[in-house]
Amino acid sequence: PGGGLVSLLIWLACSSAEVVEIAVEPEPIGLAECAVCGMTVGEQPSPRGQVQHRDGQHLHLCSLGDLRAYLAAPSPLGTPVGVWVEVLPADLDPSQRDPNQQAWMPASEAAYLGGVPRAAIMGEPLLSYAGPPEAQQAQGLWGGQRYTWEQLEATDFSRLP
Question: What is the Cα–Cα distance from 131 to 24, expressed in whole angstroms?
């Protein structure tokens, strides 16, 4: 999981029960606008997020806070078939506003660090890493609290001190 091309079969409700296969994988940011706030995603610092819907449409988010906000709201496009986050090198200083695109991985497979102060970030400041060892290394450098994707989905950051 996490590598290679993942395919999703979508059954169309038609008389012939036709099968349509679409590629479910992240795409480059390009000149995308954030699906939540409208900012130019490529100008914002990593990590950012993106979702893909069953019609193949990709939506990009300028921060992990906006990704969480997007996923928490009902969408006329339905539940995304893919959700990805950029993962940071553990030694990348989070105070730096590095807009270079990082590697993408499924959000459910990444490890997260919250509570690390960051300027000019939409939503709660969250950082994403390729796995628990990287998040633990980053925590040793920058502080904060480690989370899994499941914990992030269940955490209301507005209620934390």
Answer: 21
**Half-sphere exposure (CA, 13 Å, Cβ side) for 138?**
29
SS3 breakdown of the chain: % helix, strand, coil, rounded to 5? 20, 25, 50
Asked if 7 contacts 52 with a C-beta cutoff of 8 angstroms, the reply is no
For residue 109 the two structure tokens come to 């497979």
C-alpha 51: how far from chain center: 7
Q: Is 28 exposed, middle or buried (0-12, 13-18, 19+ CB in 10 A)?
A: exposed
pTM of the entire structure?
A: 0.81
pLDDT of residue 6: 37
> d(Cα 50, Cα 61) in Å, to the nearest integer?
6
Local structure of 52: helix, strand or coil: strand
Q: Are 123 and 64 in contact (CB under 8 A)?
A: yes
Tens digits of residue pLDDT in 111-134? 999 989 887 776 778 999 999 999
Select from 21, 85, 78, 22 the least CA-distant residue to 53: 78
- How, if at all, do strands 145-147 and 58-61 pair? unpaired
List, in sequence order, the alpha helices (H) in the chain: 64-72, 132-142, 149-154
